[in-house]
Amino acid sequence: MRDVDVVVVGAGQAGLSAAYHLRRVGLTPGRDFVVLDHAPRPGGAWQFRWPSLTYGKVHGMHALPGMELTGADGSRPSSEVIGEYFAAYEERFGLGVRRPVDVTAVREGEGGRLLVETSEGNWSARALISATGTWDRPFWPRYAGQETFLGRQLHTAGYRGPEEFAGQRVIVVGGGASGTQHLMEIAPYAAETFWVTRRPPVFVDGDFGEAAGREAVARVEDRVRRGLPPESVVSVTGLPLNDAVRRARAQGVLDRLPMFDRITPTGAVWDDGRTVEAEAILWATGFRAAIDHLAPLRLREPGGGIRMDGTRAVRDERVHLVGYGPSASTIGANRAGRAAVRGIERLLDRAPALTP
C-alpha cells in the first residue's frame, strides 16, 4: 500500500492538465500525487485514432496549460503529433506518469481515505481525479438480427482507414462527426456507401461561435447536475457545414437513410420494404464515460449518471471527474483540471498559495 494525497487516473488532456495544476500548487509528483495511465504510451485516446485522421483534420485541439503545440505538420497522423506533444509535456513538467497501469476499482479505504486498486498494487489517497474519458467504452447499439450478419461489423474504435473497405458495400451508422468523416473517406474506395442515422442530421453553416459553445456546455452541465448521463456534443451543436461536407452532399455521399428495423445476414431491412445489401457495417455510434472503476463508491444517480457540482461528485467530495460531461473537450478538460485542483486544495485544507 502506497500513500499519496491525490491519485489521478488517466493521462489524456484532462489528466495531464490536472497533474500540471497539482504541481502548480506545490504538490510533488510521486510523493504527493501520482498519475496512473493504462495506455501503453503517451497520447491519451489520440494514440488510438486511425492513421488517416491527420492533424490538419483535427478541429478544436487546444494546447495543454503551460506549453504550446507549435509547428505541427498538418499532414502527419494526429496520433503521432499529439502523442509526441503529450510525451514532451510529461517530460518537461516531470509528471512521472506510471504506465501501463489498469485501475480496476476505487472503494472506501481506512481513515476516510480512498483505496485505489490497480494492476500495479494498491494506493491510498485522500482524493481522486478521474480523467478516464470515453475511448475505452465504445457504444454498440443492439438491433434485431445483428448476430446473423455474415459480413464484418466494427466500431469507430476499431477503424483504421478506408482502404480496407475497397470494393465493398458499407453501411455507416451514426450521425456524428465520426460518421460523416468515415463516409467521406470510405466513399472513394467502396463500391457503395449507405448512411443510416436515428435522427435527421442538422448541418450548421458558419463558424461554431462562442455563443453556441456556451449553449452546448450549459445543456450538458444541466444534465450532469441532475445526475443524467452526458449527451453527445453533436446533438447540441449540429454538424459543421464546411467545403468537404458540401462536396460530399452534392455527390450524394451524405444522403441519409432513417434507422433500419432489422439486420439480415446480407444487410439491413426497413419495415416499409426497403432493403440494403452490404459486406460491412461500421458503427459510428459514439462512446460512453469510462467510469466503471468508480462503481464501488455508488456515485450513480437513478438517472444513470453521476450528479456533479462543477468537477466534484456530489455524493463524494473526495472524487472529481474531469473530461466528463461539459469538460469533455480539449479546452474544457484544461479548465476542469484547474477547477478540480482548486476543490482538492480546499479538501486537503491547504491555503490557495501553497508553499512546499
Measured by DSSP, the beta-strand proportion falls in: 15-25%
Number of strands: 18
Please tell me the overall pLDDT.
90
Helical coverage, percent range: 10-25%
Radius of gyration: 22 Å
Summarize the helix and strand pattern as letters. EHEHEEEEEHEEHHEHEEEEEEEEH
Based on helices, strands and strand pairing, what is the structural class? Answer: alpha/beta
Main beta sheet: 8 strands, mixed
Low-confidence regions: 351-356
The helix count comes to: 7
Shape: globular
How would you describe this structure to a colleague?
- This protein is an alpha/beta fold and about 350 residues long.
- Helices cover about 25% and strands about 20% of the residues.
- It contains seven helices and 18 strands.
- Strands 1, 2, 3, 4, 5, 16, 17 and 18 form an eight-stranded mixed β-sheet that branches. Strands 6-15-7-8-11 form a five-stranded parallel β-sheet, with helices on one face. The protein has a three-stranded antiparallel β-sheet with strand order 12-13-14, with no helix packed on it.
- The radius of gyration is 22 Å and the shape is globular.
